[in-house]
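Quick one, T. Sequence first:
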Amino acid sequence: MHSEEIARKVANFFGVSAPDTYGRNFAEGVTKIATGPVVILANTQWAGTLRTTREPERVVHQVARTLIRNHPRGVRMRILIEVDDSAGTAASLRGRELTLVGPDEQDVSLTGSLSPAETTAFRALALAESRTVPSEVWSVLCSALGHDVSVRQLEQLVSEHSSATLTRASSEAGGLEVAFRRESTARAWRETVPAEDIGRFHTQVLTSLRSAEPTSAVDRYIHLAAAGHAAAAGVFEALLEDASIMAKVGHHSLFEAFEAAYHDRPVPPAGLAANLHYMTERGIWPATHGEWLAFLHHALLNRGVSGKDLADRLVAAADSSAWPWLTLWAHGTGPGMATTERVVKRPTVRRLQVLQAPSVSLTVATDGQGDSSVWELDSGNPVADPGDAPEAPGSITADQGLHGWRPAGAADGYVDLPRMPRYVRRAVRTGDRAVMSSSDGVFAIAIHSSSPDGAQAEVLKRLLPTDTTVATTDMPTGAVHASTEWFEQVWGTAVLKRLAEDSLPSDLVDADARRFLTEVGFPCLTGFLELDTLDLSATGLTPVPGSVADKGTSFRLGTWQGAQLLLDGTTGKVLQDGSSGIDDPLAGTSLRQFVTMVRLYYWWYASDWPIENAEADLQAWLARIDADAYATQSWQRVFEDYNFTDRI
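Structure tokens:
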């Protein structure tokens, strides 16, 4: 079982999980336990379905530890946890410890005389990512290990070792599969394979699965195990880019492999794995394979142009008519897709409508300021003027409440719409079409009521968070050699005030400051970051006598955090005069660096961030642009002091 499934079972038993509402996650639910229970978590060392997994650790750290730390202190809880024989795990739980010792059973397959084919077969079965394997796939795994073993030979091997080592089991698909009778035997066999052979094996398995004839046995193994092989081979991102494989990979195994692949390294922010991180953050836990593919396709479309090609290939590789719904188009900015080229504005949609024009249905999204955007419902093409088109007959408007979709404006009730994550807020349905608004933007879906998977009525949520983190985004290329255009992308053309060369005072001797003022300009800003700068094109550079400059003359730029902001004419440094009580005067090692930092801060401050941790990116960028200035009290304060007058 997965840690998420275990958390749900435990929470359901206590009646505190609120699985039919967005109310609480597992940690919050545990605080509501009212009875004194005995909780037994057995066999946690075998949690998960893959062999390359972090599920045993996740059960201990996210389920067991949450029960220990979060249950009410007045509740007498007893927890018994069976873990692998690791002294570190037992000691970290700080409880009484009992070591279980089983019979010393020596496996004949590990001690007997085996042929090369038999040795390969046992090793391949032990390295399989699924604990049960069809004979047809077992043969493919043997070839990946470098020795061809036929299905007939494997069947003979099962007959010879079925009583002591191997066992047959019926799969959910109805076929027979082979497994080790004890998983400890599989672990022992894996230890006989050199590490370099293991890496090549997992890579070759993925290659073989891609080229294998798509039988039901192969497809089922891909569904259960391909993601585990990708994680073990270190090629998880490449798996996500392969639409033909992704159409078959099951979401349970995919998310399990994702946690394993990135538990000890951050997720690349520009890659497809970041999609999975944000999907887990938003509570995506599909109930069926069709529902999963619908969400995956939607997430790819939210990546804009970069994801549309893969989304189209996913539709071509799978039977999208079997999905409960299909995204027709999406307009907005998906998580992790923002750039510093412009302020990120995600719509706050107050009203959605579907209108019926003479030849086409239209959707209208109106924001809080009364501004509207109009698109064709089926194509998503923008429409300049909807005219006097009336509302589509029979259209139903809905809001997403704690228990799912309800009629717009109503306290309760139910509207027949596919379940969505909580960040999807409003919807209008007309026939088999629906348009929805989220914190990312607006999108339209086609609803497949005849889908075999069917629509799920309960809300979509996770009880446990992901263990993964997204790495810091690379420094924006525009910030490295900041141009006038890069500044104007967020400030417009009227903010930067350029000065003529002959208007610059001779006391301004720093060449880079002179070049920046004449080629780029200094921004005239007010009302954010406690920064009010002068319009230098009107005031010119005014010298300040007795300033904090090391030598020579300094010039007034405005005020920042209650202090005078000055430009040192000799060094080009941007300084504060100390009148605010901030001791360290440095605001920027150069004028260019200071304005670049302010521009990036403004971009972050003025943008909408429903889920991305863009503040961490911003801080990393500022530290690279000007490490000395970023380390000062003035720059640290803009992130630590939330009583900033313009951030309340």
